[in-house]
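dumping this here before i forget
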Amino acid sequence: MIFCAETFYEIVMILRNEGGVLLRRGLSFTIPNQYGHFLQDILTPIPLNQYQWKVIDEESYIVKDGQLDCLLFPKSTVINGRQLNERITQHEHYLIFVDIKAFQPNISSEIITYEDFLHSTCEFVLLVTDSQYVTIYCKDQEMLNSLYENAFLHEFEEIEYITSHNDSMTRLSCW
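structure:
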């Protein structure tokens, strides 16, 4: 585990502000606005095969021969972890908007707000907006810590935990 002074300070401040209860909802950071395997990089700590993945109205492209080709996910769909892994590892991609949610074991109702997320079978939400702004919500605190460390190791920028005090999202959507 990597010790980061800023993370320790942030946790101490949250603990003080929350009366001893750490309310981390997720994580936000930025990725480079370029072609790459960013979904694969972001999702490295996640056991993809343990989930059913719901992809909603995204706009991201497979890159072939240095050019944008077809949509990474042609339509809103539900896929298993193996299918997701194939999609994100076979070709470079260019992310513009991504809305992916992981469910275990069954997909529950639509997730619109953070409260919907909390009361659903959804375990993980990944949103990418404007090609570089990544927002993740995760119920599992250990997995959230792994995602933070992973973002740090991939040298993503502006990495911070999302808490009840700094969460400005009103909808869990990239649109």
